[in-house]
């Protein structure tokens, strides 16, 4: 029996540890990203579905908001200075929008890995390929639950364990039709040295 559309759209999906997905989030729809076990980061990127040259921009967003930590009520802007989505709920209040998705090079340079994992970058590249988006077009992600405190005097940053506990979540609402790339982050430091899944759910706006 066919399910009604709303039931299909409210299905909770799980991203296995160290992997990623991509999907379309229509304008007005909401995406709930949940940390089911706690202390797990999810990297999020977004592209205008109708013109993927338009992509979320940490520079534009941090500039217009005049702050580096985003939370509920904050819009996220594109490279063309249009609002792509807005954060509408946030149970954690600490996310990063400064650092690029972890990658094989991240693991080689920071961790000294000889055979590095492809990281969120590689996972996003694979997930976004069907949408015609190549790896060179992956920007700095909005790193949900990533905890990067900054020393305000020196600018030195640290990657600390996420403040998210099991079941904590963040909800965004799309302000245009967007292609979303989303991962369960693969970097040891970002996730307190344990790789966990990320859950997500798409719902229609209230
Ligand atoms: Zn990552």
Mean pLDDT: 94
Shape: globular
Based on helices, strands and strand pairing, what is the structural class? alpha+beta
Number of helical runs? 4
The tally of beta strands, per DSSP, is 10
Q: State the domain count.
A: 1
Helix content: 10-25%
Give the bound compounds.
Answer: zinc ion
Poorly predicted segments: none
Strand content: 25-35%
Instruction: Output the strand order for the largest sheet.
Output: 1-10-3-8-6-5
Tell me the Rg in angstroms: 16 Å
End-to-end distance: 26 Å
Order of helical and strand elements:
HEEEEHEEHHEEEE
Main sheet characteristics: 6 strands, antiparallel
Oligomeric state: single chain
Briefly say what this structure is.
It comes from Parvibaculum lavamentivorans (strain DS-1 / DSM 13023 / NCIMB 13966). The protein has 206 residues and is an alpha+beta fold.
What does this structure look like?
This protein is of the alpha+beta class. The chain has one domain. It has four helices and ten strands. It has helices spanning 5-9, 58-65, 104-109, 119-128, and strands at residues 12-15, 20-25, 30-35, 42-48, 75-77, 83-90, 142-144, 168-174, 178-183, 198-203. Strands 1-10-3-8-6-5 form a six-stranded antiparallel sheet. A hairpin with a 5-residue loop joins strand 5 and strand 6. The longest helix is centred in the middle third of the chain and has 10 residues, at 119-128. The mean pLDDT is 94. Zinc ion binds at residues 43, 101-102, 119-120, 185-187, 190.
């Amino acid at each position: 029996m066919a399910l009604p559309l709303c039931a299909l759209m409210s299905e909770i999906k799980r991203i296995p540890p160290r992997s990623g997905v991509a999907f379309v989030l229509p304008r007005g729809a909401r995406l709930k990203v949940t940390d089911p076990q706690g202390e797990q980061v999810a990297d999020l990127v977004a592209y205008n579905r109708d013109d993927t040259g338009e992509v979320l921009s940490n520079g534009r967003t941090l500039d217009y908001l005049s702050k580096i930590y985003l939370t509920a009520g904050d819009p996220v802007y594109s490279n063309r200075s249009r609002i792509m989505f807005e954060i509408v709920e946030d149970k954690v209040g600490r996310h990063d929008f400064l650092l690029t998705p972890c990658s094989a090079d991240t693991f080689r340079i920071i961790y000294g890995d000889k055979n590095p994992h492809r990281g969120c970058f590689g996972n996003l590249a694979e997930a976004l390929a069907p949408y015609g988006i190549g790896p060179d077009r992956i920007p700095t992600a909005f790193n949900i639950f990533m905890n990067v405190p900054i020393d305000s005097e020196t600018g030195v940053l640290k990657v600390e364990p996420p403040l998210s506990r099991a079941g904590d979540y963040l909800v965004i609402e799309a302000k245009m039709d967007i292609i979303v790339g989303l991962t369960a982050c693969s970097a040891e430091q970002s996730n307190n040295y344990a790789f966990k899944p990320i859950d997500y759910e798409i719902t229609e706006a209230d």
